[in-house]
Inverse folding.
């Protein structure tokens, strides 16, 4: 879907989102840039327009990701957490030999019992698709003649991470080092090397080290996690530069995404191993 400017403005108004918020979804994009997209004759870059269309489509399916009524007296709800918190929850679930969904329900039920001792309750069983159990420590293992690795979430690449992603082991062609895990890519800012919708295998990074120039990294800050190429740019006035006068910088591979992001306030969580 490629919406018109009027449709985008109506969507922002109806969802009570600001242009500042829309700018924040695309790296270092400024509100002024969004103003130019929506209030002038300037064309919105095709990659950005496609990503906004995907966001609007996700909102149209919001009944599937927000609290909503379902047949009977049941309710479905979703929660959004950062990658580190998700991994912590996932490890807790695996330790109890539960899926993440089962662990969340069990934890909530136990808290209800603690608050209302002696009160009986009905636990609604989860319907879980058949798949290998999640790994206690990230990495690959052989199951049924194949190799499997945990898909633990998504990573932004010019588009927000969809709420519809299913976290589950995925089959891969070979074994990867211990600690590796998989992420689904949302957006085309790293195309053509990493197309929208790709699954990437990444390896946790020691934050005390500095990646080599050209390394693809998972970078996380207050706005979430994104896929970028690590490199350097010339320092500006007031920035702490290295001996060569450079500062670390993060770039997209797709030339349509021209913004260069510095690493202030963020961290490198992982580095790319392979696109699968």
């Amino acid at each position: 879907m490629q919406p018109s400017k009027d449709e985008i403005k109506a969507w922002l108004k109806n969802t009570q989102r600001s242009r500042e918020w829309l700018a924040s979804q695309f790296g270092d994009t400024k509100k002024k840039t969004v103003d130019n997209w929506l209030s002038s004759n300037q064309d919105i870059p095709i990659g950005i327009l496609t990503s906004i269309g995907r966001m609007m489509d996700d909102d149209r399916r919001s009944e599937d990701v927000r609290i909503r009524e379902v047949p009977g007296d049941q309710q479905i709800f979703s929660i959004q957490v950062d990658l580190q918190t998700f991994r912590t929850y996932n490890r807790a679930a695996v330790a109890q030999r539960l899926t993440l969904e089962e662990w969340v329900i069990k934890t909530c039920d136990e808290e209800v019992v603690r608050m209302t001792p002696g009160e009986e309750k009905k636990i609604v069983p989860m319907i879980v698709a058949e798949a290998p159990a999640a790994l206690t420590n990230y990495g690959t293992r052989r199951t049924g003649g194949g190799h499997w690795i945990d898909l633990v979430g998504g990573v932004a690449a010019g588009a927000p991470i969809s709420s519809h992603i299913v976290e589950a082991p995925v089959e891969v062609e070979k074994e990867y080092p211990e600690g590796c895990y998989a992420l689904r890519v949302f957006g085309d800012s790293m195309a053509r090397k990493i197309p929208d919708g790709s699954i990437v295998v990444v390896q946790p990074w020691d934050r005390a080290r500095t990646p080599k120039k050209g390394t693809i990294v998972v970078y996380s800050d207050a706005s979430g996690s994104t896929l970028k190429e690590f490199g350097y740019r010339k320092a500006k006035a007031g920035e702490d530069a290295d001996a060569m006068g450079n500062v670390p910088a993060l770039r997209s591979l797709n030339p349509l995404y021209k913004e260069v992001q510095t690493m202030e306030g963020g961290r490198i969580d992982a580095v790319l191993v392979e696109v699968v």
